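User: I'm preparing a small set of examples for a lab meeting where we compare how different chains pack in three dimensions. I only have the primary sequence for this one, and I'd like the structure in token form so I can line it up with the others. Please keep the answer compact; I'll paste it straight into my notes.
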Amino acid sequence: MAAVFEPVAARPAPSRARGLVPWVRANLLGSWPSIVATLALMGLLAWWLTELLDWAVLRAVTAPSLDACQAARGSGACWGAVVEKWRLTIFGRYPFGQHWRPFTATVALLALLVASCVRPLWSRWLALSWPVVLAACFALMAGGVAGLERVPTDRWGGLPLTIMLSTLSIVLAFPLAVLVALGRRSALPAIRAVCALYVELVRGVPLVSILFMASFMFPLLMPPGVSIDVLLRVLAGITLFAAAYLAEVVRGGLQAIPRGQTEAAASLGLGYWQTQRKIVLPQALSLVVPGIMNSFISTFKDTSLVTIVSLYELTGSVGLAFDSDADWRPYKIEAYLFIAAIYFAFCFSMSRYSLSIERHLNLSRKR
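Assistant: Understood. Below is the structure token output for the 367-residue chain.
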């Protein structure tokens, strides 16, 4: 018998596997235990958000009035404390009449950081602007030039000090970390041993002890009459600490590069530094972008520890603002929530930028 072709009947298109609804159906409502757990957690979250909204918004006091805050105590937040103490919280012990100077320096430094994150602006002029902007920021903060009042570094504080310390420590720690990571993979035993010893020694002690030694122990080892500013000592301590952790992240990326890459470079006649700069490091750093950004975020938050050496950055300036005023001291929690929002804004921005870099670097791998 001759075969008769019979077309298969049309079938409905498969359901969409992407999107919010399929994800919720698969992950939150996939079975009866999952449905019960999801509903219970959503109910608990709704109750908590309702209580939080009632405390933080509906019954909150925004006016800097002690009587109003005392009347709402226990039932509503007193954001008036933040309004009353925001300048001391943001600028620390910097002279009140000169707050425009740290404000200008902070805005300039943040503008430089944002410009450095925009690829179309990458040029030699941007590289040259870094020392110019940093010098201008230090001149504004320190004074003593152009008729500005002299302000010692122990009076610096608040958000400007946090941003300055984190920016400088990250900028200085990154090239040092790359050199240490390359040293740990060097064929020379002496260089490899020195780099390994540095990493293990620094990672074996907490940052608090390093800051304590930089602030109190290091001056005892200096010759009589020689003194290094406490801000520079603290900056050096944070930089060395951050570089030790970041070096291990970079070394992980270097170890992920196949040996064939360096062998191919050697066959082309490239030297060691040419191979590292043009072939190995671009690939290694692109592989560990999440780890690098994680170290940057950790360094940004670690600047809060400089309070132990009497440098009142953002976290320390909150205690400085409220501990010295018994009337506003009961509303210190609102101030901590305020600076927590500032930290979250900066850390979240850094993580989003890291994701954009990952997406850009993954374009070539998706081809």
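A couple of notes for your slides: The chain has a mean pLDDT of 88. The longest helix spans residues 332-361.

User: Perfect, thanks.
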